[in-house]
Design a protein that fits this description.
2 copies of one chain form a homodimer. Chain A has 346 residues and is α/β, with parallel strands linked by helices. Chain A is built from 13 helices and 14 strands.
Amino acid sequence: MRHIPIILLGYGNVGRAFVRLVEEKRDRLNQDYGLNLVWTTIFRREGRYDFPPIGESDHPVIEKDGLKFGELKTGRVLNDLKSLLREAPGGVMVDGSVSDQKTGQPGYDYWKKAFSWGWHVVTANKGPLVYDYKGLHNSAHQNRCGLGISGATAAALPTVDLALYALAGADIQSVEGILNGTSNYILTRMGEGVDYAEALSEAQGKGIAEPDPAMDVEGWDTAYKILLITNASTELKYSLNDVSVKGITSISRQEVEKAAREGKRIKLLGRFERTDTGGILEVAPRAVGPDHPLFWVNGTEKGITFETDTMGSISAVGGRSSPVGAAAALLKDLINIVRQHDNKSD
Amino acid sequence: MRHIPIILLGYGNVGRAFVRLVEEKRDRLNQDYGLNLVWTTIFRREGRYDFPPIGESDHPVIEKDGLKFGELKTGRVLNDLKSLLREAPGGVMVDGSVSDQKTGQPGYDYWKKAFSWGWHVVTANKGPLVYDYKGLHNSAHQNRCGLGISGATAAALPTVDLALYALAGADIQSVEGILNGTSNYILTRMGEGVDYAEALSEAQGKGIAEPDPAMDVEGWDTAYKILLITNASTELKYSLNDVSVKGITSISRQEVEKAAREGKRIKLLGRFERTDTGGILEVAPRAVGPDHPLFWVNGTEKGITFETDTMGSISAVGGRSSPVGAAAALLKDLINIVRQHDNKSD
């Protein structure tokens, strides 16, 4: 049995789903993977939760999600982190918080600190990755640590791990993905004769689209994901400036109907294609026919297709889009990283 | 750089495709994975090829697939193996040969010997696996060796590695697969109005179906694959007797037409479903509608769907069916196994 200390950043929907998932799966993780995940600290915006609880009067003991922990109000995350990381090298920092993708902060500094003390990072937080994937990748590599980004790319849909494991040894020539459920839902409804504005407000009514849907419908969420998937799946390391981005806000019903008359459907595709000089990265709506493997991916569903030299075309479709799906993605990355990195101590 | 000795069993279509693939990918394997695959010996029915060639008069030097090796006529594979395995623990035995699935021989004995000397096995040969998956799995495990079976399950279509890596930590509740291209081709053509006999002879004419198509159309190939995928993807360990098998030979045009009138298609599905008391394993033709993720998998294409507790439904579709696809599957298993097992020596 290997005991793996865990620091969790963020205790919102994803963080809480992760805590509940680990507690639900505790026996299976022991049995199937020989892993015992040991909660160390949960950092929240308002302070930190510590395990085991100290239980003094100024550290009230709180019970939540089946766990008891001591609550400590402190804003000094970076300072507090140092001593925690130093105490238990080989732990995993799980990031379920949100960082700014323009600065990568605050996650960027936490992760760098984690790597420097030999901690792995698995994340549902895209910000630091979009800000500087290459720098973080190199930092992880130099410190022989893992960086698991499934939770930040398309949660339960296999993307990066499909490339790294199922396509190991193959050259990836192109990647195409329907990576944003909201815009795919809107396009699917438009294909059924509904206007953009109506489809959007329907999606908002159902809680599929955010009140401010810009990130999804303007293609940025897709851009982040195809950027990260490409960076993690190939030897190439792009930044956000390299992605040409067009969303679905200007798609008219006429365009959708024209596509339908040709037996096609309009999909918002994130694409990477290898070229003689490197590659191109773009997000744009495209009309695809039934011979395209992602033609069949409708509604809020997501899918991804890799074209390879030796294995042909391989697609993955599905995967739950929810805090539970994201938590499951964090957990799978954690399992894959610890079994690949530290089996000396088996 | 890690030097990995390779013994290859079989030098037919798959074995030769594997040799060519490794030579083509030599630089990329070095660069991307830090691996140098070192040919040791290729065992054929007629004798063995040795590297480097000794080049005496009774060991003629032969050049094939870009390699030079010494040819030795010998039938004593098991005897010869012993000394080879002993010389280089941590090597990989790549099985591109064919064994009887009723006895597992001759592969079964070779693999056991390999594990006992610390060699990993990756295989496109189903025979030993169908004969005694559990015994081989245990033998590999006890000797801390890997057993890679992608090449024997659906070649370039991700199946077992999808389960082991992309679904790590999730409970697999069911598996459904279209795992045999020949029968899917025949069913697809029948859906287009062609009789069974006509579709079969068409498939034979195109080289899709064997002259004796029994293994494919009677469901046995699918049975082997769903058995092996289930055994490798879950904690359950079934044998062939546990699989209920029905093929497509008695499907009438009327049945196909009836399904079509209901908007459905008949597919030969290999299925595993978890039950309260364990699970059921079966192969049978089933009418599936457009809400089924494998409805869209037509012609010679293959696909697989996993239902999980935390990630929802995840499907993979595609993957080249050819000796190159099988060789690529052997290579990916080899890469995944050596990077998971021996990173002490990085």
